[in-house]
From TrEMBL:
This is DUF3046 domain-containing protein. It comes from the Bacteria. It comes from Streptomyces olivaceus.
Length: 64
């Protein structure tokens, strides 16, 4: 998954204002105790990060 697609999905699900706030502030065990930004900066694949977000935030299947 390309980062542009990842951020489009984040924005579609959380809205333009909250997507970045969530990505910056929400620490997830599924990402090794990292935020979305930290995981991406550490080299995690965007698809893996999106899957973790989907699991944690119970994103509906059609949006995964």
């Amino acid at each position: 998954m390309r980062l542009t697609v990842f951020w489009e999905r984040m924005t579609d699900h959380f809205g333009p204002g909250y997507a970045d706030t969530f990505a910056r502030d929400h620490v997830m065990a599924e990402l090794g105790g990292r935020t979305v930004h930290e995981a991406l900066d550490a080299g995690w694949d965007a698809k893996e990060v999106w899957r973790a977000v989907c699991t944690v935030m119970d994103v509906p299947g059609e949006l995964r």
